Amino acid sequence: MLALRRPSVLPGFGPTLGFALLYLSLIVLIPLAALFFRSADLGFDGFLRVVSTPRALAAFRLTFGAALFAALVNAFFGLLLAWVLTRYRFPGRRIIDGLVDLPFALPTAVAGIALATLYAPNGWLGSLLDKVGIKVAYTPAGVFVALVFISLPFVVRTIQPVLQDLEPELEEASASLGANRWQTWRFVVFPVLLPALLTGFALAFARALGEYGSVIFIAGNLPGRSEIVPLLIFIQLEQYQYAAAAAIATVMLLASFVLLLLINLLQRWASKRHGE
Fold it and tell me: By the 8 A CB rule, do 217 and 116 touch?
């Protein structure tokens, strides 16, 4: 007997897959392939020479270092914020929950201007910090502050659904068996949250790597000190160094591919743990 096919409002598998692949190729694959081919014009030695200049290495160190540090900080405070918003009821909770999504909706240029105004030497916080010898605006610290601001929602919104689905009975059973609060957190709650926490960390790290608009207003953009990789790519393009810009962008693209693979592996791991 012929198996009955489930009716669908969309065309068959072949046309649907063809249109999907065509759209993906036009929007993603072809531009990325062009980037690789453009950087290949330099040759392997030329590619290494461009990406290993002192200015490029300093930009890579700052971008990857600040993004990693910002993701680590948000992994801790994002978990704490998600826990408070999920487990407690207090006045203004919905307002705070809505403010978490503000970096999603706020244009990055607006965020950068707001942070620069706030942390400038004559700003509200900057003037106070300046009295104790701490400078944030127009320094590498400003890059870190901007990356923390734009990447926080990725951690919070990744952990919140897992916390909401976590059954309180598990914690009650742990307490009834004689476990204290720390033991319940360490052996019951945290293992469930760990996959989501790692995924949120990876998403925050990936988002911070590609940030541009909010950083350039507060970083100062000093070559070798507070210049990020996206800005260096833009400067190379302004100087008509297209192959050099493509080479630096290729390094960032490869890093993004690695992070994307890591995120997919973490999500698969989380799905298997959830299934168990």
Answer: yes
Measured CA to CA, the distance from residue 70 to residue 152 in angstroms comes to 9
Residue 246 sits at φ, ψ, to 5 deg, of: -65, -35
Backbone angles phi, psi at 135, to 5 degrees: -115, 130
- Is CATH 1.10.3720.10 the right assignment for the domain spanning 56-275? yes
Which among 121, 139, 150 has a CA at the least distance from the CA of 213? Answer: 150
As given in the structure block, the two tokens for residue 235 are 């400067």
69-83, pLDDT tens digit by residue? 999 999 999 999 999
What pTM did the predictor assign? 0.84
Q: What is the pLDDT of residues 168-216, one digit of tens each?
A: 777 777 777 777 778 888 888 888 888 889 889 988 998 998 888 889 8
Instruction: Report residue 136: phi and psi, to 5°.
Output: -110, -55
